[in-house]
Amino acid sequence: MNERMAASSDRVMLGPLVAAIDQGTSSTRFLVFNAKTAELLSHHQVEIQQSFPKEGWVEEDPKEILQSVYECMERTCEKLTQLNIDISNIKAIGVTNQRETTLVWDKETGEPLYNAIVWLDLRTQSTVERLINKTPGRNKNHLKHKTGLPISTYFSAVKLRWLMDNVVEVQEAVLARRAMFGTVDSWLIWCLTGGKSGGVHCTDVTNASRTMLFNIHTMDWDPELCKYFDIPMEILPKVRSSSEIYGLMKIYSSLKSGALTGIPISGCLGDQSAALVGQMCFQDGQAKNTYGTGCFLLRNTGLKPVMSDHGLLTTVAYKLGRDQPPCYALEGSVAIAGAAVRWLRDNLGIVQCSTDIEKLAATVGTSYGCYFVPAFSGLYAPYWEPSARGIICGLTQFTNRSHLAFAALEAVCFQTREILDAMNQDSGIPLTQLQVDGGMTSNKLLMQLQADILCIPVVKPSMPETTALGAAMAAGAAEGVSVWSLKPEDLSAVTSEKFEPQINPEESEYRYARWKKAVQKAMNWETTEPVSNGNGETSIFSSAPLGFYILGSMFMLIGAKYIAGCQN
To answer: Coiled-coil stretches, from where to where (predicted)?
Structure first.
């Protein structure tokens, strides 16, 4: 007893703590913050496996996602104990997640009925084309007045429609009224609050606004939209604000993280909205860009939804309390950013580790006229062109893997420039600097390139985990928790690093013009009516130009890699 008292007296006294689950496309993290200072005290990260069962398909295992959350919680709690920090000081938990990724599970067994279909997935392209063909004037913006979104493979409704059309287990569960639909936040909150034993089936307004089933004006599921996609409304989660107590944690008491049992889950934001909150962009006109698997630029537009004329999305930024008004944002979404680096690592073996890309690119300091358009999932904002595919062009015999690495980083910056240009046109007030966050911002070469290509300063906070911070802020500020004040005068000052443009604007414009030319070459690669390869499956080589191009590109890349290997 005396030993236990002595141990407890040695514990570091920090005041209230708030935790966040950050479930992203490529990894899961659990992070613990000091609610008074916003200091990150401890965290743990686990990489998530993606599977690609067919061309254009991207899936993840819902059970692996859940298990990764448990593992991150357990390891973080162990680290806190080692740091002598009392786990019982954690007063709330927030959830932030990859958006649009779609799951259906059985509420009686608690089992997923299919893998999670990831936001990047392209299997619904024919469904999208069919829906657009049905609209007056073949208008992909037919539902935009209600949803703020174009009809696209990106959003959840078409993924859910595919599951209901193609997976027998889902069809049977829907008919038997056992099916539950949700994005990743819904799946995690349901499981963590009890699952089949009383789990809470809910989502927040930011995640709901990415489904194409949610009316961003009424702030609820829209019966007409559900009828349009033929989705039964009873399978949808209840829509809640981004900051309120949804339910209490239930974890096995045998685990170290069992100490989290009974703690309220009281914050929920889609990852890009969470980053907006974490960057403290609470004023109309403030913006941030997050560099992760994709790249997402959000600009707060205040209490009114602003419709874009330049290919951007209108989305719900946050609703920080049940009785608070919603705030809206304009969003530019880029599908492939960090995923291009992962592709260079996993598919081509150009780097052993994603962090090696900076060192490799820095050895040449230029792409030497090589341009890489990573349109693996078509092109998102501002084009919304699902028929585009990835290309590498401007290759010469001089091009090597270092130039390709540099071109991959430049591609992230050029895509950001495109959505920033669109945002400046929509708002009429150009941004004078860009606030950034996300895993890729640790790459200083990338940040400098971004400043050079935008011709404005890039500002990176010293604490890069702004997505998780946003979820923690929402959870800590919730009514009934109230350990984190969101009043402007109470928000912690953020230290940051600034990258100033170092090249002249003429050089920047020349490179950007070449990029735009490369993008045009990437358009219209995929045929709209795929040709079967004989066993009922469609093939990437159904598009002859694309087939020849990919083969040619692969041979050249393999040759370049071989030559580079010999030289080393």
So the answer is: none
